[in-house]
Amino acid sequence: MSPPQPLATRQLPWAVSLALTAIASPAQAERTQVGPMEEMVVTASRSAERVMDSPASLSILNEEDIARATTPLLADLMRDLPGIRVSDSGQPGLSRIRIRGEESRRTAILINGQEVTDHYEVGTPLTLHPTMVERVEVIRGSGSVLYGSRALSGVVNFLTRKGGTEPVEATVSGGYNGATRGEDLFASVYGNVSGLEYRFAWSDSDHEERQSPEGEIENTAFDSNSLYAYLGRGFGDHRFEYIYDNYESSSDIFVEEAVRTSPPLLDFYLETPQRDRQRHSVFYNWEIDNSWLRLISANASTQQSDRHFYTRTELDIYVRDINNFSELNTDGALLQFDLQPVGGHSLIAGIQYLNDDVDQTRHVDTVSSAPPIPSGTEIINDRANIETWAWFVQDQWSLHPDVTLTAGLRQYFVEGELEDSNRESLTPGSLDKDDELIGSLGLVWATSDTLSLRANVSEGYVYPSLLQLATGAYAGSRFVNPEPGLTPETSINYELGLRLQRTDLTLDATAFYTESDDYIDDLPCTAQDNCPGSRDRRYLNVGESTAHGIELFTSYTGLPANLETYGNLTWMERRNDYENFSTRDTGIPQFSGRAGLRWAGSVERLQGVWVDGYLRGETKSDLEEPGTVRNVLESKSGWVTANIAGGINFGRDTRYQLSVELFNLFDKTYIASGENLYGIERSAALKLTVSM
């Protein structure tokens, strides 16, 4: 098959655009005893509160949503949430999340509230299997005050599964995906023995090349396996928990032929043979019953991330193989105090520490057929670190029984160092220090038991990565040189929102406006830069951005025959401004979303039956950037796919659950915005889960 090429530009049909205006997240629209606005969340304020009471823009995937899904990838679970885009970077097994059009590296990825760091340009991969996750909480808009650097566009917090209620319980599941000939296996044993809660889990996924309406897409296979262990116990007012998780993966990388053969390239090949992560975490809570202090909580973690990235570049005059091996060691700790409400104030305060240490080695093997490029092997070693200290405080002040004001501050102290490098163009030494104070302010007015209005202003902050500051990175046959004097990226985010929860109607709407400054990008070196290579690039603060839009989700259950209609809609416009270049073509569609009709109930003796038919789509998206290899323009047409999902819980105590999803029923050819690969062909996926 020929690699995917940009599709013709065209808008969605008006009929589909109108259909999408009724849209909301299916995850928010599930009929449960507790309405979506009544659900409790912990990520928005680092303490439990109802969605209705939070000033932040929130999306939630609960245990039932995750259990019903057939995908082995966390990013696919969040694909239909408002404001969320999936980015694959040509690596289908290592998809990332983009919030409100920002790059993935500007989103904080958390596991149980602890940050998972990554210093590569494409952002932090979601290295967890969905079956290990019990709940996902997403903040749209800056979460930097509570969650630090990388939370400029938002926060995604994966809350993993814990223990059980009986001495021994077990769950096993198996799945199959027709579009990738993929197999997914999962097994878990868990329980509670005399107050000691435990869980041990394992997963394995193996997927072949993706099948699209245009045929098989080469270099899209991926696999992963993971181990997970949890132990937790309470001792009176004290509780201790330990979590271990290990994720190992490898992924082929698809590269468009237009890029692979762009002069002077004859061919270009990429692969990620290793993308592994191992993490140990401990948690401690002390519930205190006194007049001023309610809770002391602390956690600490240590993580090792191993990456092997392979590049093969073929030119007329040489062939070059680059094997990049890197080890990222991350240590983090947090201490938080939750104070009792005093005079209408509820205060939390904390101290946080994070240290990232990167040790990487590049083996560059060159076979040259002509001067001046010499043949031979070059081994390049780099070691660098970033240390961050921060304190934060957040006050929730009840101005009136119906009005709550939330104000927060965070002070950063960041210091980096290039510890060692044998690259002639780099000089080991301290990097620029930075200290930054940022804040947030939110207001919630509960006008009634069913309606609340909210406003929110929040600042964002992203300190440059170690690749940008210290070690640089290869981009094909080119080297992107670091810049120690880079300025941190910042933003300010404004929001107005409405939440409505009635017996048969749920509505959550957000209007937002964001300004972002000091964007970091890589541009071709000039003569004044004195870069060592003639085709080198360099990291620079080159731009700023503004974005505005509306995010809406809603559901209505007042239809006959126990039917429920739901939908989600995102409308967004974004503008990127560079020094000599400005564009509204940022690769983001104006409209995107999902609309559907579902039913849940029983059929004769079969209980727990559900069916969900839905349309998923987006308008056209154009991408224009300075200094790219594709004549600076990429265009993707609008598209809509029809899909059906369904399932059943059956057996004694409904211990069996079968989920089936039918994708792209009309075999539509499309490439989603933010992705490099054609969408999957008309295909089916299924998952069978047995609980014992």
CATH topology: Maltoporin, Chain A
User: Any idea what the radius of gyration is?
Assistant: 25 Å
User: At CATH's second level, what is the architecture?
Assistant: Beta Barrel
pLDDT averaged over residues: 88
Say which CATH homologous superfamily is assigned: TonB-dependent receptor, beta-barrel domain
Largest sheet: 22 strands, antiparallel, barrel
Principal-axis shape equals globular
Condensed summary:
This protein has 692 residues and is mostly beta strands.
Give a description of the structure.
There is one protein chain. By secondary structure, the chain is mainly beta. It has a single domain, classed as TonB-dependent receptor, beta-barrel domain (Maltoporin, Chain A, Beta Barrel). Helices cover 4% and strands 60% of the residues. The chain is built from 6 helices and 39 strands. It has a 22-stranded antiparallel beta barrel. A 5-stranded mixed beta sheet has the order 3-8-9-6-7. A two-stranded antiparallel ribbon has the order 1-2. Strand 30 and strand 31 form a beta hairpin. It is globular, with a radius of gyration of 25 Å. It starts with 13 loop residues before the first helix and ends with a strand. The N terminus is likely disordered.
List the helices and strands and how they pair.
Blueprint: H1 14-20, E1 40-41, E2 49-50, E3 57-61, H2 63-68, H3 74-77, E4 84-87, E5 96-99, E6 107-111, E7 114-115, E8 133-140, H4 144-147, E9 154-160, E10 169-177, E11 182-193, E12 196-207, E13 210-212, E14 215-217, E15 222-235, E16 238-253, H5 257-260, E17 265-287, E18 293-315, E19 318-339, E20 345-368, E21 376-400, E22 403-421, E23 429-430, E24 434-446, E25 451-462, H6 466-471, E26 473-475, E27 478-481, E28 489-501, E29 505-524, E30 537-556, E31 563-578, E32 581-583, E33 591-603, E34 606-618, E35 621-624, E36 633-636, E37 639-650, E38 656-663, E39 683-691
Parallel strand pairs: 6-9, 27-30
Antiparallel strand pairs: 1-2, 3-8, 4-5, 6-7, 8-9, 10-11, 10-39, 11-12, 12-15, 13-14, 15-16, 16-17, 17-18, 18-19, 19-20, 20-21, 21-22, 22-23, 22-24, 24-25, 25-28, 26-27, 28-29, 29-30, 30-31, 31-32, 31-33, 33-34, 34-37, 35-36, 37-38, 38-39
